[in-house]
Amino acid sequence: MNVEIINTGSELMLGFVLNTHQQWLCRQLADLGHPVSRQVAVPDTGAAIQTAVKEALARTELIIVTGGLGPTSDDLTRDLIAKLFEKKLHYDATVLQNIETFFAKRGRPMPPNTAVQALVPEGALVLANAHGTAPGLVLEFVPPTSNANAPGLLVMLPGPPRELRPMFANQVVPLLRKKFPLTAGFVCHTFKTTGLGESLIQDEIAQPLKQLTDAGLEIGYCARVGEVDVRLVASGSRAEQIVTDAGTIVRSRIGRHIFSEGGETLETVVVRLLTERRQTLALAESCTGGHIANRITNVPGASAVLWAGLVTYSNESKQNLLGVRAETLAAHGAVSEPTAREMAEGARRISGADYALSVTGIAGPAGGTEAKPVGTVFIALASVDGAKVLQSVNGYDRETFKFVTSQQALEMLRRTILLSAATTKD
Amino acid sequence: MNVEIINTGSELMLGFVLNTHQQWLCRQLADLGHPVSRQVAVPDTGAAIQTAVKEALARTELIIVTGGLGPTSDDLTRDLIAKLFEKKLHYDATVLQNIETFFAKRGRPMPPNTAVQALVPEGALVLANAHGTAPGLVLEFVPPTSNANAPGLLVMLPGPPRELRPMFANQVVPLLRKKFPLTAGFVCHTFKTTGLGESLIQDEIAQPLKQLTDAGLEIGYCARVGEVDVRLVASGSRAEQIVTDAGTIVRSRIGRHIFSEGGETLETVVVRLLTERRQTLALAESCTGGHIANRITNVPGASAVLWAGLVTYSNESKQNLLGVRAETLAAHGAVSEPTAREMAEGARRISGADYALSVTGIAGPAGGTEAKPVGTVFIALASVDGAKVLQSVNGYDRETFKFVTSQQALEMLRRTILLSAATTKD
Q: What chain B residue is nearest to A280 in terms of C-alpha separation?
């Protein structure tokens, strides 16, 4: 089956907006067993949208069009596609009612031009918009493949992500499951890992999985700096068994590098582990400059576990706030194993938290020396068992450096929490 | 002129990677006066890449292809396009030398398969890669428009952004300026603003600019939550004058909301202003959880101005680290005007910094009350002139809340620094 996404919007073509729909929709569709074969973005002009849709109709069974369903003069998608399909538009009473309710709830008058969003091409299925005024629309068409019993689907979705995503998840996914049932079973399972590069993971698992890949297992690697997703996919009647067996092998080979199997981020896992154990955390960040605190506090409920984060960028603040000794700074420098250790121990002492994580390093672009090049970092973790320090050289641009370093620090914390729990149980 | 971007990579189609090339390249090309007319993403399969390139050759003068130039088996772009152009590949000695140097510098043996990246289609222009091993390649073709004196260009760029971006800026931009000179003047000027919504800005400037838009001025608004870019564009012999006149009007109408005209981020402006004045900053963040510190420390040289950032998530840390009084917390709560004020004053007192910025609020999704709904936030700024407090309700999801709140806080700081400088001069 061919699947095509068409993103409309001049703001995309002028580079004013990042197209996050592509990744999100592609991931959803791949996990449903319908990977996207082509994605196209075009400006809000009539000719460009119609050309893109016409081309897609000639080669595709499923077309998802995003954007251009709003009330303003550059929202042309609904009109243009209705014309292309030779369908008249009529006002849909339920949609009109929804738009009126939307404004009434907010105590705002309904601008007259918003009523245009209630226009629906004849024969279209209407997808209610729980978070905005423009509904989604679905039209059937005859796809290029000759099987007339299975019509193609063109799905129009509103542009704003907070409207598009729930509409897709709650209404389009069930529709696709019904209209495009997978002829055979389809199973997909993703491991999120950190601490091993893509090629090292491949070296570890490719050979042991050989028998299963011969039997139809597909392995996908999604490598970002500091994080690799391993995706196991199989189709057919044995899909479930193949992915289960493969998962067992993957866990046995790289288990300690897997931090989640359900899609959780590393910071979410850490907050969850601490919450479950009613333990607390203090942070003392130099070179990561609050990046770790920011990630931790992106997780709802982080306030239950984070006592405080200290961004001690200056030597003075390392001394005053954390009690790092002047002699330590003088003898070893701010970027050193002893300083990292004293930062973590100081943060734990002043906070009384169960764990204190510290980071000191050289983010660059300036500040490196021969002995300590740009990217040098010391990460320390203090707990009831004392403090341990990890040294690394993360030679990346400033923002990547911060992310990679925060991954190492959070992973060090995750493993320590798990290990300490294991010890307690013994 | 038609411009098309083709992004290749199965990782894009599976939703494993966010396509940041589209926005970046679209913005660069729009600012050069060559807005992109279509962007396409296809998987790493031979047929899909060749079809996309063939279609583009038939309707386009400039084609940018990203990805697929690396050394592994799924890097097919170079081969496929050479075949399509009926060009033989030969080893380029300079490129081979660069690859050898790349590995030698890192003290790593050169993997034999990396030599394939030195293969260059005959007649291609080679773009040196300063940050990796795969060079960029440029081929000329006869475009669909009949002017044979101006050949079309197909530019192949490596996939990693840290390789693609400098290659485009340093080598492709000069080439495009030479090969596709703008027939008439083209001037583009962008204002970055915060604190006014898109429609309010439009209300302020559209009417006063009417005469200039009638004369050919184009106004583009790029609205993100917490930030609106206003882009003024004109072509033709009067372009410079039109944009200059329009800029004067925009500054007179919304000047105090403009934080940069050269593309600087708000955090970069704040760090620059403090550095110029040799002033220092301390941060005390509750609900933004380190987001402001993280933004400030993304700016190289931030260590000269940031004394420390304190992420005081718990009441206890607000008291112990910042000296917020227990009575204040008991009487008014952690999210209150007096607490924000005491946090800022405390941070300034312990740090001796010139400015101390504090934030306390309810990021959500839980924790709101009728009197203080989710999104309620108090931002305080302490300086030699005392402390002032701003209250706002930023009703967004957690991460958007943090960004919008950090915009308000940084903008409050920016204006205060400028005001204080103005006062000093008097």
A: B314
Nearest CB to A30; choose among B14, B310, B351:
B14
Most B-contacting residue of A6, A11, A16 (CB-CB within 10 A), to test interface:
A16
Which residues in chain A have Cβ-Cβ distances shorter than 8 Å to B229? Answer: 16
What pLDDT does B426 receive?
Answer: 41
Q: Which of A24, A52, A297 sits opposite B313 (nearest CB)?
A: A297
Q: What is the CATH number of the domain that holds A280?
A: 3.90.950.20
Task: Quote the pLDDT of residue B111.
Answer: 79
Task: Give dist(CA B341, CA B359) in Å, integer.
Answer: 9
Chain position carrying tokens 């002033």: B279
Rounded to whole angstroms, the Cα distance separating A230 from B225 reads: 34
C-alpha distance from B148 to closest chain A C-alpha (Å) = 26
Instruction: Find the CATH number of the domain harbouring A95.
Output: 3.40.980.10
Residues B172 and B37 in one domain: yes
Same domain assignment for residues A332 and A408: yes
Contact A308 B307 (CB under 8 A): no
Q: Note whether B291 contacts A290, CB cutoff 8 Å.
A: yes
**CB-based contacts of A297, cutoff 8 Å, min separation 6:** A303, A306, B287, B288, B289, B290, B291, B311, B313, B363, B402
Residue A299 domain boundaries: 266-425
Are A11 and A158 within one domain? yes
Q: Domains in chain B: how many in total?
A: 3
Stronger pLDDT, A388 or A45, i.e. the higher one: A388
Coil vs helix vs strand at B308: strand
| Residues B375-398, mean pLDDT to the nearest whole number | 93
B322 to chain A, closest Cα gap in Å: 10
CA distance B27 to B181: 18
Residues B311, B207 share a domain? no
Distance CA B50, CA B48 (A): 6
Do A128 and A165 lie in one domain? The reply is yes
pLDDT at A282 over 60: yes
DSSP state of B169: I
Let me know whether B322 and B216 are in one domain. no
pLDDT tens for B82-123 read 999 999 999 999 999 999 988 887 777 887 778 889 999 999
pLDDT-derived band at B247 (thresholds 50, 70, 90) equals very high
Q: What mean pLDDT, rounded, does chain A reach?
A: 91
User: What pLDDT does residue A162 have?
Assistant: 81
